[in-house]
Each structure stands twice: as C-alpha cells, then as structure tokens.
Design a protein that fits this description.
Keywords: Metal-binding, Zinc, Zinc-finger
Number of helices: 2
Pfam family, one: zf-RING_UBOX
Strand content: 5-15%
GO molecular function: zinc ion binding
Order of helices and strands: HEEEEEH
Structural class: alpha+beta
Protein name: Zinc finger, C3HC4 type
CATH superfamily: Zinc/RING finger domain, C3HC4 (zinc finger)
Oligomer: single chain
Number of strands: 5
Length: about 80
C-alpha cells in the first residue's frame, strides 16, 4: 500500500483517474477524450455522462488507452516530460 501512495504522489495529474484520484488502472479513453480507470466508469446500463465535462459517453466508443497505460507504467506522463 505504501508503494501505491508513493507511486500516486509522484504522478502528474494526467496519469490519475478523476473519479478515484489514483493512478490510472486499465486506462480507457472516452469519446470526449477523458481518461478513467476501466472499473471507475460504469457503462453497463448504457450511456452515462462524463464526470469531467458532462458529455454523453457512448459505451461502444470507449477504448483502452494503450499509450496512457505505457505512460503510467513508466511514470512518464506529459508533465514529467516538460510538455
């Protein structure tokens, strides 16, 4: 658990989930362009509103974000790169 806390504290904002405020786990990207942990965005009952921008999220348009997954695993997100 201490590792998770230290890992999260070292992450920039774009590597954390806006729902659980933890490091992204199994990151997904929505049709509105926001990232969440797969388990944090429940679309089992159809479309939902994005917790960030309130846009309608269509379940069929949610995709795994492999680039974000690599960034989180390597703790190499944009703020760490000076972008």
């Amino acid at each position: 658990m201490d590792y998770e806390i230290a890992f999260k504290e070292g992450l920039p904002y774009d590597c954390t989930c806006p729902v659980c405020d933890q490091a992204l786990r199994a990151p997904i990207i929505t049709n509105c362009g926001h990232n969440f942990c797969k388990q944090c965005l429940n679309t089992d009952n159809g479309p939902v509103s994005c917790p960030v921008c309130q846009a309608e999220i269509v379940p069929g348009l949610i995709k795994p974000d492999k680039n974000k997954h690599r960034q989180v695993d390597g703790n190499n997100c944009s703020e760490n790169q000076g972008l």
